[in-house]
Amino acid sequence: MSSESIIWLIPLPPLLAFFLIVLFTNKSKALSHSVAIGAAALSWLGGMVVFFRAVGVEHFGKEVFHSSINWIPTGDTWLKIGVLIDPLSAVTLFFVAWTVLMIFIYSVGYHNFGQPKGDHDQPGLPPHGATSEDEHGHKHTVPSIEPMYSRFFAFIGLFAFGMYTLVVSDNLLTLFVGWEIMGLCSYLLIGFWYGKPSARNAAIKAFMTTRIGDVFMLLGISFLYSATGTLSFQEIFTEHTLSVLASTVTPIFGLSAAGLIGLLLFIGTVGKSAQWPLHVWLPDAMEGPTPVSAMIHAATMVSAGVYAAIRMFPLITADFTGHGLTTTMSIIAFTGAFTALFAATIAVAQNDIKRVLAYSTISQLGFMIAALGIGAYVAAIFHLITHAFFKALLFLGSGSVIHGMEHGVLHTGDHSVDAQDMFNMGGLRKKMPITFWTFLIGGFALSGFPILTAGFWSKDEILADAFANGHMAVFITLAVAAFLTAFYTMRQITLTFLGEARTKSAEHAQETHWTMTMPLVILSVFAIGFGWFGIPEEFPLLGGLIPNWLHEFVGGTLAEHPEVLEFNIFPLLTSLIVALGGLLTGWLVYRNVKSAEDDKLQIKVLKNKYYFDEIYDFLFVKPAYWFSETFAYKFLDQTIIDGFLNRVGGVAAGIGHSFRQYFDAPVVNGFGDLVGEGAKRIGKIMAPIIQRGRIQYYMLASLVVAIIVAVLYYFLLV
Amino acid sequence: MTPDQIIFLLCAALIVSSALMVVTTRNLVHAALWLVAALFGVAILYALLQAGFLALVQVVVYIGAIAILFIFAVMLTRREMRDKGPQINQNWVISALLALLSFGGLVYILSSWDGFSKTANALPAGVDPLMVLGKALVSPDAFVLPFEVASILLLAALIGAVFIATSSKE
Amino acid sequence: MSIPLSWYLILSAALFSIGLFGVLARKNAVAILLGIELMLNAVNINLVAFWRYGTGSIAGQVFAIIVFAVAAAEVAVGLALIISVYRRRSTVIADDLDLLKW
Fold first, then answer.
1. CA atoms A287, A290, A293, A296: torsion sign
2. How many domains does chain C divide into?
3. What average pLDDT does the segment A59-65 reach?
4. Are C40 and C31 contacting, i.e. CB atoms less than 8 angstroms apart?
5. Number of continuous H segments (helices) and E segments (strands) in chain B
6. pLDDT value for B11
């Protein structure tokens, strides 16, 4: 089968799975997850085939897999849609296929497949445990199966479809379609447990915030279309089109058309990838089940945002001459770097195991975007891929931890213990070894532990690029953020796994099912190994042993192959110091911390996320509510429009009523009644006169009439 | 004044006065007897009109049967031998008016007819009116059918009268 | 003959009117029938007069004979009815026989 055909087919199995589960296999849990995992496996297989074929092609950047069809006729030309696998989308496809499949398999165990139905479980609320008897007659509370099991798999199937569509598309339109499908699915999945008000609010928040970004993105797309007449990547990223766009000046901030479009599209990324100022939805999105968090915040959705930005790189850098960043690029770099530091500071003060990872994601995305802003194309892609792997690993690992803790909670029956609070954990390395080791690998990768982990290589490349091109502000910010990253990661690991258990529930925690631990192991292989594909050539000792395949491969996406950086020891040293230093500091500080009161870094501002939620609520949410409730609803709708309509109705009713009262009843009815009543009365009066029963009277009457008739006859006719 | 006219006038006077007595007298038996007188006068009139057979039939049938029948009926439907109260009912004014009106109307209409004052022609000689009548009554291309029907009518009346008059005895 | 037709016709009209008055104005049912007899006789006079003063068709006399028969039948049945009513209601006053009243 040709690669193009396979590429067209890759997004389809998860979509089919969605429909099949929704329509047919809803009732059967086993069938639903089999359909979903089967679909994910099919897409994975397709992705792998395409990837390995792509890798085998020399100069793949020039010989891409492309296929398109005419879709909408627009005047003389057609709007075409199609699929495109170039090096960028090939590597993206690789990590998306793996992480999606792992998450699907993980979900089976996460939602407790095989466990009995819960005692009081309602669809819409997380499962609360079922009482089961063992052979001795002892009653235990065990984890219960998720009541909305099939629905979950249907939704993540749809989500996978959206992501695959985005990755394989060759034009902005279908990219945007995939983008929006993922937005919808994030709403559905964050609000999966719709019985919880916090989940519902989080879903709305996520959707609304990303929507703001999407509006600007749509503006950018429209502008692009009106400026170039096409949305297809291959047609936009030609020398000619780019130079035209770069030279057209727009009235907004004096940006060139390319810069403006790039900025608008970037705002879409800001929303989707939760950069400051649109970062507020991502921590709240932890309300969804952990596989969702892994999917949305590691493997797919946020990566899609960065992917789109990377895709638009030629447009963003269209007027970049290599000396001094353009306005757009500066904005991008600033946003990325600022977000990286900002989120890292908040992560230090969070106690919920998933919140730490959420802010960590925001921070790492900031790294990628900063890299893009300073023009480090390959570094951004590299970090995107490695981040997907180790962040998915970390999220799934945290889900495993939470599961183990919940097992302990159910065992002890102490439901006041929050299974997600790190200060309730401790010593879990003994109880959950696989989770511990894989989490450790992921955490080290995140921190940038040297050589062994993939995170080191990708983060180092970003820092090196920043340093080499003289963007010192970005370099320092990112370095500090890296230090904090390592610090809070080690904090997390120490509090969760090391030391002694702080609560009874932690003592009774238990390792999770193989469907959950197997994906962890597989992902950790990637978290370690993938980094070795991007070792810079000039790295001391190790450089040159393995060619920098990633740079060669991915760099070919751009029209001009990016130059290889000169090696400089300074950024390398910086990464080593911040990574190892951060890890050590974290361990030292939190080794002996017994509870939240002892934690000196529980600074209020950090804990409350710099009060951004409150600020937005005051500035935007409350006015919006006021506008819609008071102004639009009460005043415009009820008073004016409804009032007017009611009055019209009232007038009509009044007219009808007066017709009835003054015309119909007296005149029409009256006339009818008059005729009837009159006849009756005449009859009543006439009857005793005419019909007396006396024959002589009848004879008299008939004779009178006969004479009258005769007289009339005589006089009229004769 | 020819003798015929004198006879006619006398006869007319008899008839009219008898008729008036019939309709005004209180005593019903007297009324029946005045009827006899009137009928007799009519018979004389028939004779005057040279319908001798009819005069005879008038006397025999009308006076001899019908008037007797009336007398019998009067006798049979009397509670007391005395007559009670006036025999004229409450509508007599209008009735009188109507009667006068009808008389006047009839005369008026008839008078505008041009044959009103004609005199009688001589009867064709040699033809016996009785023979002609008899033949007409039984001749198939004359009046045998009405004649037979009249006889059936009489039969029906006979049966009917008997039935009505006797059935109420149960 | 020297008697004009009009005399007979006027006489017949007068007799008819008197009979009409009798029918309409008498209380006793038998008296009503007497009035009817007078009317029938008036008709007969008319018919015979027209026969005599007409074209000579015997139809006038035949008609008169039929009238005789009809009158006889009618009197018989009528009186039978009156007698039957008398037996039932013990009255022959026409005004008392008002079962047809509304």
1. negative
2. 1
3. 75
4. no
5. 7, 0
6. 93
* Tens digits of residue pLDDT in A701-718: 888 898 889 888 888 886
DSSP A311-333: HTHHHHTTT--SSS--HHHHHHH
A437-472 residue pLDDT tens: 999 999 999 988 887 888 888 888 888 888 888 788
Asked if the structure places residue C98 within a domain, the reply is no
Give the closest of A691, A693, A699 to C24, CB-based. A699
Tell me whether residue B105 is in a domain. Answer: no
Q: How many residues does the structure list for chain B?
A: 170
The residue from B29, B63, B83 where one domain ends is B83
Say how many C-beta atoms besides its own lie within 10 A of residue A624's C-beta: 11
Top pLDDT among A582 and A631 is at A582
- B113 inside domain: no
Give the gap in angstroms from C-alpha B94 to the nearest C-alpha of chain A: 8
Q: C61 to chain B: which residues are within 8 Å by CB?
A: 51, 53-54, 129, 133, 136
Within a domain: C100? no
Q: What is the mean pLDDT of residues B47-53?
A: 87
Instruction: Confirm whether B107 is domain-assigned.
Output: no
DSSP 8-state code for residue A441: H
CB-CB neighbors (< 8 A) of C50 in chain B: none
CATH number of the domain where residue C83 is located: 1.10.287.3510
pLDDT confidence tier of residue B83, bands split at 50, 70 and 90? low
Which of A692, A699, A700 comes nearest C101 by C-beta?
A692
Q: Do B102 and A700 touch (CB under 8 A)?
A: no
pLDDT surpasses 70 at A237: yes
Q: Tell me the average pLDDT across A367-386.
A: 90
For A630-660, the pLDDT digits (tens) are 777 777 777 788 888 888 999 999 998 888 8
> What ranges do the domains of chain A cover?
321-602, 615-710
pLDDT at B41: 94
Domain span holding position B161: 128-170
- Which residue range forms the structural domain that includes residue C75? 5-92
Number of domains in chain B: 2
Residue C76: inside a domain, yes or no? Answer: yes
Mean pLDDT calculated for residue range A171-188: 91
Distance from CA of B77 to the nearest CA of A (A): 19
Gap between the Cα atoms of C30 and B30, Å rounded: 12
What distances in angstroms separate CA A560 from CA A84, A202, A554, one per listed residue?
A: 19, 43, 11
Q: For residue B51, is it left (φ>0), alpha (ψ between -120 and 50) or beta?
A: beta
Instruction: Specify if C20 maps to a domain.
Output: yes
Where is average pLDDT lowest: A402-406, A430-434, A536-540? Answer: A536-540
| Domain end call among B21, B53, B83 | B83
- Let me know if residue B45 belongs to a domain: yes
C49 interaction partners in chain B (CB closer than 8 Å): 49
